Amino acid sequence: MKNNSEKNCRNNSRQQILATAITLFAHQGFDKTGLRELAKTAGVNLAMVNYFFGSKNKLLTEILDIFFSQYVDIARTTLSGDDELSVKLERFILKAIKFFAENREFLIIAITDLHHEDEEIIGHKSTWARQMFKIVELEICHRLAEERNLKLSPKLIMPMLTSIMSSRFLFSPVMEQIEDNETYDMSLQRYAETITAIVLDGILGQKVLR
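^ that's the sequence the OP posted. Answer follows.
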C-alpha cells in the first residue's frame, strides 16, 4: 500500500509540474520561464522537476508531444475515406478547431512559440510536421492531382490551413469581448464551413462562398 501511495504521489507531482509548465509557457513564454519559478509555482522542489523531466527542453517536448499527437490523430481519422474532398476537409477543420478551442494554452505553445534558434525543438516539431504532411499529401494533395490536375505540396497547404484555423483562438481574449460565450461556441460550425470555402476557393478557383 505504501508503494502505491508513493507512486500516486509522484504521478500527481509530475502532472502538477506539467500543468504548471503549460500555463507558464503559454502566458509568459518558454524563454521567460525559469525552472526555479516553475518549481515554486507548482509547489515542488527543483530537484523533482529535474528528476521527472531532466531539462526545460525535455519538458517542452513532452507538451508538444501531447498536442501534436492529438492533432495528427485528428487529421488521420477525419481525412481518411472516399468522401468528397470538401466533406473530408470540413470534417477535419471542424474537429481541429474544436480541439484548438479546448486546448488554447497548448496551441499558443505549439504554434506561436517557435524557438527558431533551438535546433532540438525545431527538430522535434519537424518530426510531427512530417507525419502531418504525409497524411495531407495522401488524403488531399493526391485527390487534387487526380480530380483537378492540381499539383500542390502539403508544405503549402498544411501551414496555411493551420494558421487560418488557429487564428481565431490565438485572438480569443479579444473575440470573447465582442461575442458572448454561447455565440462564440455555436459559431464553430459556421467557422469550419467558412474556412473550408475559403481554402477550396483559393485552391480550386471556385466561387463556393455564398
